[in-house]
Every structure is written in C-alpha cells, then in structure tokens.
C-alpha cells in the first residue's frame, strides 16, 4: 500500500509519515517544496496533483486551509485519486459548532460524499503549537498573548493524531467514523505555560488578550479577513469551554493512552530556554 501524505512537512504530517513507515507502509511525502524523498504537491496548482496521486491507495489530507478559494478542491482531488480506497481528513474540534466560519466544514462534507472509506479526525489544539508557531514569542520574551481568557483546553500531541491516522489508513473498522481527539486533561493556557516553564526551569507566562486586540494584531501581521474571522471563531469556542472536552478516542483506537503535555514539554525543553 502507498499512502500520499499531504502536509507532510507539518505538525501532523511528519509524524503520520513516521507512524506509517513504522507499520511498513510506503509513503509519499507531499510538499510545495519537497526534499529528496518527497513529491511536489500544491493545492493551488492542479498540475501537481496527478503525478503525486499516481498509484496511491491511501490519502492523508491536510486540507487547503491556506488557499483563499478552497471550496471544491478536496472534492476534485478525491475524484482524481482513482486508486485511493481510504482517506483520512484532518479537520478540527468545533468545526460543527461554527460551520459558516471554519472552512473545514466544507471539506468534511466533500469527504463524506466521496465513495472512499473515509475517516475524519477532529483534534483539539496541538501541544506542538507551543514548540512551533508560539515558540518565538516564548523563547524571546517568555510571554504568550492570546484571546483564550482562562478557559481550559485538552491540548493533544500530534503524534497521537498520527497514530490514529495510521490505524485508520491501515486497519479495518474505522470507515465512516468522526474521531474527536484530545489530550488526557484540560489545562488553561496559564497552566500549560507553567508545565512548559517547569520543564525548562524558566518562568513562562500567559496574558489574556481582548479578541479585538488579537484581531488587530493579526491584521497588522498581514492576515486577511477570512483568517482573522476564522481564528476569532476558534478562540470564541475556547472561551465558551468547548475545547475542555477530554475523550478516550486516542486510547480506544491506538491501544495507548494520550500523551500528556508534561511529556511533550520535557522532550522539547530546549526550545523555550532563553540562552
Ligand atoms: N494547530 C492546531 O492547533 C490545529 C488544531 C486542530 C486542527 N488543525 C488543523 O491542522 C491544519 C494544519 O494547520 P497547522 O497550522 O498546524 O499547519 P501544519 O500542518 O504544521 O503546516 C501546514 C502544512 O500544510 C502544507 N501546505 C500549506 N499550504 C499548502 C498548499 N497550498 N498545498 C499543499 N500543501 C500546503 C504545508 O506544506 P509545505 O509548506 O511543505 O508545502 C505544511 O506541511 C489546519 O487545517 C488546521 O485547521 C490545527
């Protein structure tokens, strides 16, 4: 079996490639700028699709969230993926609560109406954000500013998402399932930063931003209206308590418990050190 992993350079795609390789599955790692073992794939350039899809029996889809006019792209890609029997879509927790704001709702519908054996993953916020997108602010100033109030989030390790994706792509029994994936406990951002700070022996702090100030900051950094609206929606869900949910799906599907933030923090402590 060969699986095309879209978003293979990203936070879930990298461990998906690792998890499939560990199961003896051949993977094709897709990127707009692939390395030696990857394949060129760009949602926004359909000429790249056919060579990437050639002979592929399984698909891991990080959807075209960054392509402004992305409706229809997942549907068309699935139609072009003639040989692909199984597909796993990376969606997100809360997509069903704000379907007009969060673009993944469209792609869930496109996957559901395909003739593939589909599985949809709805993960909570990733633990890996602290070590990637949020890392520069934490490394430099030790402060993270977000409009999350003091609401709790059951941050999930992307390696657990990858283990679930690998199971869904290689085992029977996962078709037509929507899996809500979370970490083992819900923490506020202040508590999460305390966990990271203890691992690195440094004070890391969280500051609650007003949603309007957050939106202004995104616009100043060059974000378009669509991204601002979508991100504001996601943080509104957090403030409403929607991301505090803890599920046992990782353990049910993979047989191992979901990884706690403490493990991620200890394994990656050097990221947040201030020297
Ligand atoms: N971050 C979270 O906490 C979180 C939580 C739940 C769900 N999600 C979902 O996860 C998805 C990924 O978000 P992320 O911010 O964490 O990013 P990420 O997966 O770390 O990185 C984005 C990936 O998408 C690929 N990509 C971007 N534009 C592409 C294009 N035009 N064509 C092909 N590939 C493209 C990038 O590959 P190249 O740059 O190599 O081409 C990269 O591998 C989003 O749909 C988001 O809703 C994220």
From TrEMBL:
Domain NAD(P)-binding: from-to ranges: 7-171
Entries under SUPFAM superfamilies matching the protein: NAD(P)-binding Rossmann-fold domains
TM segment ranges: none
Superkingdom of source: Bacteria
Alphabetized InterPro entries for the sequence: Ergot_Alk_Oxidoreductase, NAD(P)-bd_dom, NAD(P)-bd_dom_sf
Full protein name: NAD(P)H-binding protein
């Amino acid at each position: 079996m060969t699986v095309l992993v879209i978003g293979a350079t990203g936070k879930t795609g990298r461990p998906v490639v690792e998890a499939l390789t560990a199961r003896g599955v051949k993977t094709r790692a897709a990127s707009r700028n692939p390395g030696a073992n990857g394949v060129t794939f760009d949602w926004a350039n359909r000429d790249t699709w056919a060579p990437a899809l050639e002979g592929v029996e399984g698909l891991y889809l990080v959807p075209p969230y960054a392509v402004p006019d992305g409706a229809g792209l997942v549907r068309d890609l699935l139609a072009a993926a003639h040989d692909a029997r199984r597909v796993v879509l990376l969606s997100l927790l809360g997509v069903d609560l704000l379907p007009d704001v969060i673009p993944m709702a469209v792609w869930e519908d496109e996957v559901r109406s395909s003739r593939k054996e589909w599985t949809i993953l709805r993960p909570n916020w990733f633990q890996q954000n602290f070590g990637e997108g949020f890392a520069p602010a934490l490394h430099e100033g030790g402060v993270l500013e977000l409009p999350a109030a003091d609401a709790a989030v059951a941050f999930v390790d992307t390696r657990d998402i990858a283990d679930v994706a690998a199971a869904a792509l290689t085992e029977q029994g996962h078709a037509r399932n929507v899996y809500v994936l979370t970490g083992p406990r819900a923490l506020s951002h202040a508590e999460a930063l305390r966990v990271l700070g203890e691992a690195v022996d440094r004070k890391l702090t969280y500051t609650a931003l007003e949603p309007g100030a957050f939106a202004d900051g995104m616009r100043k950094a060059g974000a378009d209206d669509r991204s601002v609206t979508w991100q504001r929606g996601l943080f509104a869900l957090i403030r409403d308590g929607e991301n505090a949910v803890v599920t046992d799906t990782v353990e049910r599907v993979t047989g191992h418990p979901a990884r706690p933030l403490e493990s991620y923090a200890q394994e990656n402590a050097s990221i947040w050190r201030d020297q």
